[in-house]
Design a protein that fits this description.
Blueprint lengths: L1 H35 L4 H26 L5 E3 H13 L8 E7 L3 E3 H22 L6 E10 L2 E8 L16 H12 L3 E7 L1 E9 L1
Parallel strand pairs: 2-4
Antiparallel strand pairs: 1-3, 4-5, 5-7, 6-7
């Protein structure tokens, strides 16, 4: 009887993740259709950004649906797929070289969801602004685990984030969202400037 109840629970969790993923896809499609009916550039951009944020959650629940546990997931499996899915949303993404390095460790779905949106925001900023006026670029994305500390890095060799913009003085929604989600992870985020920009997010496993 216990085995039967466990099997039923797994089936329910699998179905829930599948339905969430499908609902996310439907909402993302509706946002895209709404954007196509608008003439206001700022409004179109806002809807497109909202759709990209949903994409990170859609990829997560698609991976959870295919996983054995349905409530946690390998961070490597999730981020490998997510990074590619995000970048493919941008015209000319083929000209950008991508370097990925992900340690293979397990994280619960709640924290993966926050982390996915963080990476979406950072990659979106890179693709929008870092390589303006250039025909190529390089992005490095990594997630490592060392002594219980998770370190996530998104780095590029583009024009760099201006000194006037940072997590402490930002007026933009993207960096504010990254800061807020990092807080939900009980972590810290910082920007390092040099040959391009480097954003580091750290939190305890």
């Amino acid at each position: 009887k216990i085995k039967s109840l466990l099997a039923e629970k797994e089936l329910i969790l699998k179905e829930v993740n599948h339905r969430i993923k499908n609902n996310m896809h439907t909402m993302r499609s509706l946002l895209s259709l709404q954007a196509q009916c608008m003439n206001d550039a700022a409004g179109i951009a806002a809807l497109e950004d909202a759709g990209k944020r949903m994409l990170s959650m859609e990829v997560l629940y698609d991976n959870l649906y295919q996983s054995a546990g349905f409530s946690d997931l390998s961070i490597k499996a999730y981020l490998d797929v997510l990074v590619e899915a995000i970048l493919k949303n941008f015209p000319g993404y083929e000209t950008v070289a991508i370097e990925k390095h992900f340690d293979d460790f397990i994280l619960d779905a709640k924290r993966l969801q926050s982390l996915g949106i963080i990476i979406n925001e950072l990659l979106t900023n890179v693709m929008k602004y870092a390589f303006a006026g250039r025909s190529d670029g390089r992005i490095m994305v990594s997630a490592t685990l060392d002594s219980g500390l998770v370190t996530v890095v998104v780095q590029d060799n583009g024009r760099g984030i201006p000194e006037a913009f940072g997590f402490e003085n930002t007026t933009g929604f993207g960096l504010a969202l990254v800061k807020g989600l990092t807080g939900q992870l009980n972590g810290e985020a910082r920007i390092e400037r040099g040959s391009g920009s480097k954003v580091i997010v750290e939190f305890k496993l």
